[in-house]
Structures are given as structure tokens and as C-alpha cells.
Amino acid sequence: MAKNVLVGKGLWDYVSGDEVRPGSIAPATPGRGAAFGAGPSQVTPEQKRWDTKDAQAMAVIALTIKRTITPHIRSCRTSEDAWNTLQAMFGGRNAARIEFLKKQLDKIQMDEGDDIVEHLTKIRDLKEQLLSIDEVIPEKDLVSKTLNSLPPSYLTFQTSLTLSLRANPDPLHFEELVALLLQEDQSRKNKSLQVDGMDHALVVQNKNRGKESAHHSKSSAGQSSEKSKGDSDKSKKK
Questions:
Q1: Which end of the chain is less packed: N or C, by CB atoms within 10 Å?
Q2: pLDDT 10s digit of each residue in the chain, 238 long?
Q3: What pTM value is reported for the model?
Q4: What is the DSSP letter of 1?
């Protein structure tokens, strides 16, 4: 994370050592008009600018590490020294964590019925954890891993997307894939609601038909009973 902030602020070259502090101007000799007792060298405007930038880089490093670690870089004179000290302390530990997080990303799998939002959140979280220790997963790899982690019910979506990507020279970014998957999820939910609505309508329709049938049966039975009673009365009169 610290490296990303430093890069964003244009300070990383000072930390990496690519931006070297400009050389000092040698002091003038007494015979050339220099004041007696002058300092060993004069700080140039370029050096002042470099010192200011390096101090800013040091401040970023100090603010992005835990307070318990700060004492280890307190005696460092430059941001490069501070960075190298931290790398010596935690470089091996970070390598092991990077390997662990990458394995987690490779193994992640969405099962049928799982929530797509939760699944994508897990992938994004692993990506951010890797980024926090200066390990960037290329967008192409992240997109590929995400597509491969989907269950079989997304096969049609995967095929359609793969075909469209072949026709499009621009690479697909992870966040763009997230947006497409959320749209697909919403579309599936809408279709499910439509099916549920149709099923409910059929149930209601069948119930109404049942009621009509029962009413018709009762009506027919009543008419038949009245007719039988009338025939019986006629027989008695005879």
C-alpha cells in the first residue's frame, strides 16, 4: 500500500534510489573571496527540492506503517534507507503471505446457489490484500480467475462473453466484469420473479376453476334433488 501511495504522489523514485540527490557545490577558497570559517559546502536549490521530496516520502512511509515499527526507521537519514530497512525486516514474511493469498485466489470457487455479490467481494478482498503488500495481480489474470471460479450455470454467460471479447481488441477490466456479472445476476432474479408470478397465476386460476366446478356440481345436485322431489309429489297425488 505504501508503494502505491508513493507512486501516486510522484515520490517513488526518491525511495527506489532512481532520483539521486544532486551533488554539492564545493566551498570557495579564502583567496577567491570566501568568508573565513565558511561551511564545508553550500546547499543548492536543487538539493533543497530533493531534500523536501525525500522528507515527504519518509513521512508517507512513517504514516503507512504501524507505530510499533516506526522506531526501526527513526535513525534512517533518507526514505531509501527507511524502505530498505523495512524490506530487510519484512521482505521474507511478505513473500510467504503473497504466496498464501495467491493460492487462495486460485482455489476460490463459487457453488451453485451462492450469492454472486459475496463471491465477488471475496475476490476483491484478496486482490486488495495483495495490493497492500505491493503485489499487483494483472487485470487479465484477475478476469480469467474470476470467470473460471463461476459455477456451471454461468457457462452460457462465459461463452457469450468470451466471443464478444475476441471481437473487441480492448481488454476487459475486473471492475467491468463485476458490473456485467451483477447485471446477469439481476436479470436472473427478474426472470425468476416472472416465473414465480406465472406459477402463482396458474395456481389461482386452477383454484377458481375448482370453485366453479364445485359450484356447478352443487347446482346440478340441487336441481336433480328438486326434480326427484317433484316427481315423488306427482306420484303421491296420483
A1: C
A2: 688 889 999 999 999 999 999 985 555 555 444 444 445 568 899 999 999 999 999 999 999 888 999 999 999 999 999 999 998 888 887 888 899 999 999 999 999 999 999 999 999 999 999 988 878 899 999 999 999 999 999 999 999 998 888 888 788 999 999 999 999 999 998 987 776 555 555 555 666 666 666 555 565 655 655 555 555 555 555 5
A3: 0.56
A4: -
